[in-house]
Amino acid sequence: MDHIAAHNQSSKVAMPPTKLGNTTPNTLHQRMSEIVPNRLSDIRIIRTKYGKGNLGNVTVDMAYGGMRGIVGLIWEVSLLDPEKGITLRTHSLPELLPRLPRGRRGSEPMPEGMLWLLLTGEVPTKEEALGLSAELAKRGVVEPWIEDVLDQCPKTLHPMTQLSYAVNACQHSSKFAKAYASGVPKDTYWQYYFEDCLDLIAKLPLIAARIYRNVTRAEGAPPVGRGLSVDVSLDWSGNFARMMGFESDEFDDMLRLFLTIHCDHEGGNVSAHTCHVVSSALADPYLSFAACMNGLAGPLHGLANQECLLFIVKMREELGDNASNDQVEAYVRAIIKSGQVIPGYGHAVLRKTDPRYTCQKEWAEMHLPDDPLLKLVGQLFEVVPRVLAEGGKVKNPWPNVDAASGVLLNHYGLKETNYYTVLFGVSRALGVLSGTLWARICGLPIERPKSLTSEEVVRLFGPEVSPKM
Ligand code: CMX
Q1: What is the position in ligand 1's atom list of the atom closest to the CA of 68?
Q2: What's the gap between Cα 412 and its chain centre?
Q3: Which among 457, 464, 341, 463 has a CA at the least distance from the CA of 403?
Q4: Active-site residue among 252, 347, 354, 411?
Q5: What range does the domain containing 236 cover?
Q6: How far apart are CA 468 and CA 14, in angstroms?
Q7: Per the record, which residues fall in region Disordered (predicted)?
Q8: Is 347 an annotated catalytic residue?
Q9: How far apart are CA 190 and CA 13, in angstroms?
Q10: Contact 244/209 with Cβ under 8 angstroms?
Q11: Of the candidates 122, 208, 130, 134, the residue with the CA atom closest to the CA atom of residue 425
Q12: Residue nearest to atom 20 of ligand 1 (CA)
């Protein structure tokens, strides 16, 4: 198979130089500037040698079936294995988490380390991650009129809609859009795109925290107004937690873990692919990421974390705290019979338990072993895969990333389920903006797959099997 050969051979092309005896920590931009030319040269070699390699056949069913199994994208920063789960720049999650640097406080990895890894392919030193943290804190300002716009949103406007709205508004300060309009050379696009990506990632905690404050404020209370700002002595996640109003070290650590592990899941999922396709028209990172958030807000994708906790809470209300597995099973069967999905279970690519579920479940077992909702998460794990596997219709009966996250958030007092996808979105910025930035670095063209009508399918494969059209 050509593509496997290409994969094996690609490990032999020159990779970015490793850092030797460097005492001054790199900034992310310095390191990117060193890596980019080498990587572009690698890609030129890969395309010259393997450009004609065949990545597989496309059937009519695949075209009707959500393009499952069609390989048609390059996404440099992560790869999903159906059995093993996500690898981020070739590192599996269980292997990577202990290696990512910790900050000045807390015991979980700083998401800044993950961002550095996704962009450069290298696990940063603690100093590099802290430097990036400080840089993000400096960039974490939002134009006051955007804060006012958010303050004017009705409390009832879904937090994901508010997020998308605010990110679109931030496009006002896009450096890439201005540079493009001024006619800068194509090979410098990525530099402006990089600036926008870092600015946007830096602004997200402030935007998202303001949304949280506004949707959770007491009835009749005024919106946040002025007064939320980033503390340069805190890390990205710590700032986010503090601005939302959470003060405990354990919450901070839980949030660091959440923001680190939700960052990316290769390029074909709805949120990443949306960001990729919108950006391929050279829409700037703000417009691309706002579109990405609209996709994440769908219940079959990111909104499933909201749906999942609602499902568990409702089940607890109906079954109480001492439900048997038989009762849980009857409840699950009734939900499926009514035509609804079991949120937090199933996946379009994964075929085993999601390692992101496992790591959150392990964290919960260590930190909140007596939480009654955690007990139900465990019971669902014992019941749901067996029930979903019956009949062979569901291709993956195992839990995904959303099956345990809500229980963690709820335990620490973040009980507003309609906010959960915003947290997912803030984390996803790290992955989708990294992947999309690399698409711009590589100069990938505007995306334009070919579509067909059903009449055209019949014309291609008929007429002996043609239905009446
Ligand atoms: N509960 C009940 N039925 C399910 C199911 C679940 N958790 N997962 C899949 N199915 C059903 C599908 O609805 C589909 O039924 P129909 O043929 O009647 O339409 C059938 O099984 C086959 O689906 P599939 O090929 O196994 O799964 P898809 O690739 O089409 O869909 C996903 C994947 C995630 C949308 C689906 O498993 C699902 O709806 N899960 C619940 C929602 C969820 O947890 N989403 C979050 C996923 C993670 C993420 O992207 O963020």
Answers
A1: 29
A2: 22
A3: 341
A4: 347
A5: 55-460
A6: 56
A7: 1-27
A8: yes
A9: 23
A10: yes
A11: 208
A12: 394
pLDDT of residue 5: 41
In terms of Cα–Cα distance, which of 38, 282, 298 is closest to 158?
298
Taking the CA atoms of 38, 40, 46 and 49 in sequence, report the sign of the dihedral they define. Answer: negative
What is the structure's pLDDT at 12?
42
What pLDDT score does 227 carry? 78
What does the DSSP assignment read for 266-309? -SSSHHHHHHHHHHHTT--HHHHHHHHHHHHTSTTTTTHHHHHH
Cα dihedral angle (110, 20, 191, 283), rounded to 10 degrees?
Answer: -50
For residue 269 and ligand 1, the question of a CB distance below 6 A is answered with: yes
> Which residue's CA is the closest to the ligand 1 atom numbered 27?
348
365 within domain boundaries: yes
Which residue is listed with tokens 């530099």?
191
Q: Specify the pLDDT at position 356.
A: 98
What is the share, in percent, of the chain residues with pLDDT greater than 90? 90
- Which residue's CA is the nearest one to ligand 1's atom 1? 341
Residue type, 153: C
Q: Give yes or no for a contact between 109 and 102, defined as CB atoms under 8 angstroms apart.
A: yes
As given in the structure block, the two tokens for residue 418 are 């309609």
Low-confidence ranges of the chain (pLDDT < 70): 1-24, 464-469
pLDDT 10s digits, 188-231: 999 999 999 999 999 999 999 999 999 999 988 888 887 789 99
Contacts made by residues 5-13, CB under 8 angstroms, sequence distance 24+: 5/50, 5/53, 6/46, 6/49, 6/50, 6/53, 9/49, 9/50, 10/42, 10/46, 10/50, 13/42, 13/45, 13/46
Per the DSSP assignment, residues forming a β-bridge with 85 are 81
Is 342 a pocket residue for ligand 1 (Cβ < 6 Å)?
yes
What confidence score (pLDDT) does residue 465 get? 62
| Dihedral sign computed on CA atoms, order 391, 395, 398, 402 | negative
What CATH number is given to the structural domain containing 382? Answer: 1.10.580.10
The answer to the question of residue 31 being in a domain is: no
| Residue 5 within any structural domain of the chain | no
Task: For 332-354, give one letter per residue: b (16+ CB within 10 A) or e.
Answer: beebeeeeebbbbbbbbbbeebb
Determine, yes or no, domain membership for 93: yes
- pLDDT tens string 360-411: 999 999 999 999 999 999 999 999 999 999 989 999 999 999 999 999 999 9
Question: Residue 225's pLDDT is what?
Answer: 80
- The secondary element (H helix, E strand) that includes residue 85 is strand 85-88
pLDDT given at position 391: 83
Number of domains composing the chain: 1
Q: Could you say which of 264, 265, 402, 411 is catalytic?
A: 402
